[in-house]
Each structure stands twice: as structure tokens, then as C-alpha cells.
Amino acid sequence: MLNLMLIISALLLVTWLIDRFAGLHRNISLLFLAVPLMTAAAPMMVFIGGIISTSLAPDPAWVTLPLTFMIAGTAVATVPAAMLARRFGRRRATMLGFCSGIAGGLLGIFAVKNSWFSGFVLAAFIMGFSGAFAQQLRFAAIESLADPADIPKAISLLMLTGIFAAMIGPELAFVSKDWLDSPHGYAGTFLGIGLLSVLAITVVSRFKAPPLTALESDLPGRPLTHIVRQPVFIVAIVAAALGFGLMSFVMTATPLSMHQLHAHSLEHTKWVIQSHVAAMYLPSLITIWLGKKIKTKYFLLTGTLMFIGVVIIASQGHELLHYWWALILLGIGWNFLFYSGTTLLPLSYHNHERHKVQAINDFSIFTFQGLSSLMAGWVLFNFQWQGILYTCIPFLIIMVAITVMRFVNTHRQADAH
Fold first, then answer.
1. What's the confidence (pLDDT) of residue 219?
2. Of 207, 227, 385, 415, which is closest to residue 313 (Cα–Cα)?
3. Other residues' Cβ atoms within 10 Å of the Cβ of residue 8
4. What is the Cβ-side half-sphere exposure of residue 168, based on CA atoms within 13 angstroms?
5. How far apart are CA 323 and CA 315, in angstroms?
6. Among the four residues 44, 106, 129, 361, which has the most C-beta atoms within 10 Å?
7. DSSP structure class, residue 232
8. Which of 240-249, 260-269, 405-414 has the weakest average pLDDT?
């Protein structure tokens, strides 16, 4: 409990510092506090999903099913999340969406107490809905800014919340596992998820949507076929989707490869994954400062090169340092690619078109992530670690192509002026 209280205290302190000194709209500090409270459910499920499923699942091959369904729930809810935001506004839509965390938590309690594996999978799926609404909040942050030059700072801050989510989730799972009696334990963890959802809803209730300059419903939007053909849209969505998908693909396969196929200890495996998670979010401390000084295309280039470095290093062997360096680069590369995609996406739409474009973007990201995590185990056990790496190569070629596209496009725009 002490560790959890220290983490929450640190989150509150950083939120206050952002509100006091960042020079951004107060919405940003509210979102900084709300997002990790809601997204902590994902690392919590990573931590305990397999443990619970080992006792509940009828077949050991199904132990990753709850996590896969949680990602699927996020993917399925991306379009409704954007459409509800358009219909009811960001604040009310997000509060409604976060209620799925409460519903999923209640169903999780019932399923675990009654040893009902299908119900547990369904609970994870429902909890995944809230993740879609939480991801939409990065666009709420963009819309809250009066100066577009502040977008890189705001996006970097929200990505930094992943560190707090990664710490809060497992700690709360450990602290709350015995809050409620159940045959296999951990029923209380889902009570904890419900409480986090209530706190997140309370924080979001103070969000103030920026005033609209026009009645968006009266403005005609361009056809989607026109929007998706824009080079900047293609670069943004491919960078974010491939970055997320390849990261999940390699990360999901790494513990299985290290511990089950190549006999690394659980301690070494945990160290590699923990280092990877830190590498995913700590670079946001740099992008907060560099975002205004360096063009997004250079973050895109660096992220692509780091993903190439992952394949090169990981293919050299199966020693601890091969995995460690590869996963460090994977985390940093993901950060730069997701930052690039999120920063570039607003350049592809007009304000009144934002909801449908954001829906397409997030649906693509989380669908590809879900498929990648689902396929990782099958590819690994059929084609070994090298099969994982070889599967990445065609997608890396696509990443190189869209990076070149971005450089060429910005060069032409500069020549036109």
C-alpha cells in the first residue's frame, strides 16, 4: 500500500507542477491525471490476466485470451468513442465511456468469484472499451490548445502518463487482490479497477471543452476518400499503427522466447520487460523539450531507424543483452513513431472533420495491435524467434517508404513557398 500511495502522490505532484508551470490550458493537467487512472487497467491485466486464466481456462493455450479481448474491446470502441464525442462533447462522452471500466470491473468480480472463464474474458473485453475513450483524450488535449505550437508539449506530457499507469496497475492488483474472497484470488483487483474508473470520471467531469467557432454540424466535410489519400494522413496513420503493432508483436513474443524457449530466468525476463516499458515512456521527457525545436519528420526517421536496429540486434543471438538492447530500442522507437503519428494527424483534417478521422486512426491502430499480439505466439512457436524478426521486415520496408514520403512531401512544400 505504501508503494501505491507514493505513486499516487507523485502523480498528483506532477499534475500540480504541470498546472502551475507548463503554461498550458488547465484541461491538460486534468487529462494528465485522468488518463493513467483509466489506462492502468491494461498493465493490471498484463500482470494478473495470465495468472487468473491459468486457474480458470479450460485449456492452457487460452491464457492470453483475456488480454487479447481487452485490446479487441479497445479497437471495437474506437469508432463509437469518436462518434459519441461528436454527438455529446468530449466531457460527457468520456464520462460515459469510462463507465465501462465500472461495468467490466463488476463483471470481473462475479466471474472470478464463480470461476467463470468466459465471463472473465467478457469482462476484459468490456474494460477495453474504456481504453478507446482514454486514447481519444490526446485529441481532446490538442483541441484545448490555443497555440498549435504547444501540441508537441501536450502530446509528450500525455504519453508520459504511461509511466504512472504502468506502476499503478500492477501495484493496485497486488494490494487489492484479497479485498474480496474468491476461490482463486484477485476478485478484489476488479473492485480496484472500478474505483479507478470512478476517480477518473470525477476528474474528467471538470474538463471544459473549448468554445466552437462555428456550428460544426452545419459545415460540410470532405469525403473520406479524399482525406485518406493525403500523404500526411497516410504517414500519420501508418507510423502510429505499425509502430504500435510491431511493438506489441515483438514485446508479446519476448517473454515466451526468453523464458520458455531459451531458458532465461524469470528475473532476467522481468528486467527486460520493465526496461522496455521505461523506454516506451521516458523519451517523452525529451520530446517535451525537443518537440518545438525539431520537425516531426526527424522523430519519424529516428523511430524507423530504431525499429530496424531492433531486428539487427535481436538477430545476433539469444543472450540477455541481445534481448535487453533490442527491447530498449523497441520502446524508444515506439515512442517516437506514436508521437509522430499523433502530431501529424491533425494536419490531415479540418476541425469539423476531426471525429471521423480520429476514429479511423484509432481503429486502425488498435486493430493492428490486437492482431499482432494474437499472432505473436503462433509465429514464435512455429517459426522460432527468427520468424518473429523476419515477419517484421516487410513492415519495416513500409516504414522506410512512408518516412521517405514525409521527407519528400515537406521538401516540396518548402519549394512551393
1. 58
2. 385
3. 18
4. 27
5. 10
6. 44
7. H
8. 405-414
pLDDT tens-place string over residues 336-387: 999 999 999 999 988 888 888 988 998 999 889 888 887 887 888 889 999 9
Q: Do 334 and 244 contact (CB within 8 A), yes or no?
A: yes
| Grid cell at residue 223 | 469525403
Which residue's entry shows cell 523539450? 289
Beta strands in 113-208 (DSSP E): none
Cell representation of residue 300: 519519424
SS3 205: coil
Q: Give me the half-sphere count of Cα atoms (radius 13 Å) on the Cβ side of residue 161.
A: 26
Give 366-415 as a 3 state SS string.
Answer: HHHHHHHHHHHHHHHHHHHHHHHHHHHHHHHHHHHHHHHHHHHHHHHHHH
115 touches 184 (CB < 8 A): yes
Indicate the SS3 state at residue 129.
helix
Global pTM? 0.82
Which residue type is seen at 216?
A: E
Under 8 Å between Cβ of 239 and 399: yes
Is 226 exposed, middle or buried (CB count within 10 Å of its CB: 0-12, 13-18, 19+)? exposed
Within 8 A by CB and 6+ apart from 354, the residues are 139, 143, 346
Q: Are 107 and 122 in contact (CB under 8 A)?
A: yes
Name the 3-class secondary structure at 74. helix
Largest CA-CA distance found in the chain, in angstroms, rounded: 69
Mean of the per-residue pLDDT values of the chain: 89
Contact 171, 75 (CB under 8 A): no
pLDDT tens per residue, range 12-50 = 999 999 999 989 999 999 999 999 999 999 888 877 887
Q: What are phi and psi of 219, to 5 degrees?
A: -95, 135
Q: Give residue 111's pLDDT band: very low, low, confident or very high (50, 70, 90).
A: very high
Grid coordinates given for 313: 540486434
